[in-house]
Amino acid sequence: MNPAAEPVLSPAGVQALDARLTRAGLLDLAMEEAGRAVADAVQDAMLVGVVLLLAGSGANGGDALVAARHLAALGREVRVLAAPARHPLTRTNRKRLGAVSVRVSALSAAAVARESRTAAVIVDGLLGTGFTPPLRPALAEIVAAVNASGRPVLSIDLPSGLDATRADVPGEAVQAALTVTLSGLKTALLFGPAAHRAGQIRLAALRLPLHWAQAEALATRPTRADVARLLPVRSGDAHKGTAGRVWVVGGHPGTTGAAALASMGALRAGAGLVTVYSSAQVPLVMPELMIRQHADLAAALADAFSHGAPDAVCLGMGLGPEAATLARRVLTWGVPCVLDADALQPELAGLGHAGCVWTPHPGEAARMLGSSVAEVARDPLTAARALHDLYGGTVILKGGPSVVAHSGGLQVSRGGHPGMGSAGMGDTLAGVVAALLGQGLAAPQAALCAVTLHAAAGERAGAQHGYGLSASDVSAELGAAWLNLTSA
């Protein structure tokens, strides 16, 4: 596991890490570091005035009490509302607060409403990763009072009320402006409506042996520098025959644009030769493309393959009802391939190989898994792993952010732009993956590099066009995004 990548922890992973810290006699020091990181975040926010800290009964509350002590030592006026402590370290840190003359009052919704009127910021240390919804009525009232206060909220680890394992918001939950998450990211901080509750995310990597958190990671989030190191580098004598021959198999009457967009993505991501095979007339969107229209695609592909295999195949975009049959045949060739859109069919389960990349969005993933879109969206990490286990190869579960699943684990992408929520973006991404496969990257690396390049290109296009982005706009920025990644 790459040391630079940020770990994503499940509640079970957090418990295992805490158990290891306890065995090493370091849990008290870890709580001290966590509380200090929270205090530092409050100071960095440059909010002048009273800090109101809310401490629950568990370890999250202990972090809040440590933060209160550090803020008081820095000269800040702090007010603390706390529930009766259950965790032994939370009890210890409540005593320590008393020793430095910081008064602690009882936690209630009425107290939150009263004290928040004169507070500059609220620190939410009510609940941590061990919480499972629903909230008890008294806590629900407290959370509602926090949200009604109108004050900026800093949440410790994740906003209280969220389930750390879920991307949805199952009930009442704190709306934070900033979340200081400890040791690793959490599913709820990365995906869906839950991530919107977290505000900005600040990862406090506690000064503990780095591999301890990594050993418990459910997934990782690589840095863009990590990804840049994976991108292929051409030698001075490279030519179109060595830069990757990609076949794009797609398009059907009425959906020819999908194949055209995939082919543009492949060219812009460095493929040396891109040939489009379709039963329809695909528009020549770039003069560098080679277009082959055939009524019998299966026969045409078999004949072309008999004369030499491509370096990568990109299949399924707008292909129509014959997609699954053609995908089954292409998979038997054993060449690197990308299966997208119409080729993402349940009948292909188990047929993926090491060089194969599946690229479903949540709707296609639900079809492949026999589940619902809501189930996929609720837990993208579990869905991506299930797709890998069922289909083989490498999976890109597309979204904001995307998840890459392969035999080596799960990786969460970074970046992107909201304007990328438009038709054709997935087709472009499929072409980018194929181009990288054709240039010699292994499927997991090609997938991770492709989603990163695609997101970075989307950011560049978004800076110019705002929400009115087209897939063509993103394709046009792929080269500059590549340059930015490798020169940073």
Would you give an account of this structure?
The chain has helices spanning 11-23, 27-44, 59-73, 88-99, 109-116, 137-148, 187-190, 192-198, 210-215, 224-228, 256-268, 297-306, 323-333, 362-369, 373-378, 380-391, 425-438, 443-465, 471-476, 478-487; strands spanning 6-8, 50-55, 78-82, 104-106, 119-125, 153-156, 178-182, 200-204, 219-221, 245-249, 273-278, 290-293, 312-315, 337-339, 356-358, 394-397, 403-406, 409-412. The chain has 488 residues and is of the alpha/beta class. Strand 17 and strand 18 form a beta hairpin. The model has no long low-confidence stretch (mean pLDDT 96).
Largest sheet: 9 strands, mixed
Output the structural class: alpha/beta
The count of helical stretches stands at 20
**What's the overall average pLDDT, rounded?**
96
Task: Count the beta strands.
Answer: 18
**What is the helix fraction of residues, given as a range?**
40-55%
**Radius of gyration computed on alpha carbons:** 26 Å
Uncertain spans, ≥5 residues at pLDDT below 50? none
Spatially, the strands of the biggest sheet line up as 12-11-10-13-14-15-16-17-18
| Alpha carbon gap, first and last residue | 22 Å
- Bin the strand percentage: 15-25%
Coarse shape: elongated
Which characteristics define this entry?
alpha/beta, 44% helix
